[in-house]
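Hello,

Our lab assistant flagged a job as stuck in the queue for most of the afternoon. It eventually completed. Since we weren't sure the result was trustworthy after the delay, we are filing this so someone can double-check. Below is the sequence as submitted and the structure that was eventually returned. Let us know if re-running is recommended.
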Amino acid sequence: MKIRFSVALRHAAVAVASVALASQGFALDNVKFMIGANPGGGFDQTGRNLGKAMVEAGVAKSVQYENKGGAGGTIGLAQFANASKGDPNAMIVTGAVMVGAIVQNKPPVTLANATPVARLFYEYNVFVVPANSPLKSMKDVLEMLKKDPGSVKWGGGSRGSVDHISVAMIAKDAGVDPSKINYVPFQGGGEASAAILGGHVTVGTSGYSEMQQFIKSGKMRALAVTSGSKLPGEPVPTLKEQGVNVEIGNWRGVYGAPGITEAQRKALADAVVAASKQKSWTDALASNDWFPAVLTGEEFAKFVDGEHKRIEESMKAVGMVK
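-- returned structure --
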């Protein structure tokens, strides 16, 4: 009898905790996600998987999504900042790609115009070619790049993105002037995938999760990943294993609307943390080779400030900004 009573108490405590979280209101009603990229990309996958987990966790009654691609997510950021002021239910997906675009393009609206909520995870990029490409390794790509930098058409995310920075770093490591690389930016992973499969670019790069289905199906050949060591369970070699001294990661997180209160920001962060413990979210992390790295509040804000400096220094080093 005591055992059953103890179990009942634990269940009651869980129920009370859930009600307490939900009763905070704020961001736990109808959550609205701005996704600063076209459907099918990493930002899109992040927002939709997080929204699903929030509903499953009981911290959001419903979720809406709006895609607004372009300029590394800064077009969506400008719309979000202007249209969502003071809205405690609004969030925007962000990450290193957006920080890079802000550093390079210096738009009038930056992440300083929104409210930091939480970092979610890291992921690493993969370099791919169509299955019928004669290029079998990064060594083949580098030989082609050294002979004629313009002959290698690289396809990836927007200018200033982690994709773009990684290509510039590879060129510099190979002794090629980064300003001579032939880089073609795309607004989302879906657009980039279509260009790679269609042979419109020589080599494509994006987050492993975005290219994984094409690699697994044999439609694309993976040449290298940007991590320091092989991804768990994946045979793709790293750049370093192929003599390219480049390692670079991406991270994604969420910001809230400008003008929300500290209590409203905490409610958003609490909801995100609760969602990050759901099975659907942990399954998404595993299937996409995302590495969990939750960080909230002021610690997240300090992290983003540090990332801004790091990315700016990287861009200056490869000649992308002055």
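-- support follow-up --
The delay was a queue issue, not a problem with the job. The result is valid. The chain has two domains: 2-120+253-301, 124-242. The domain at 2-120+253-301 is CATH 3.40.190.150 (D-Maltodextrin-Binding Protein; domain 2).
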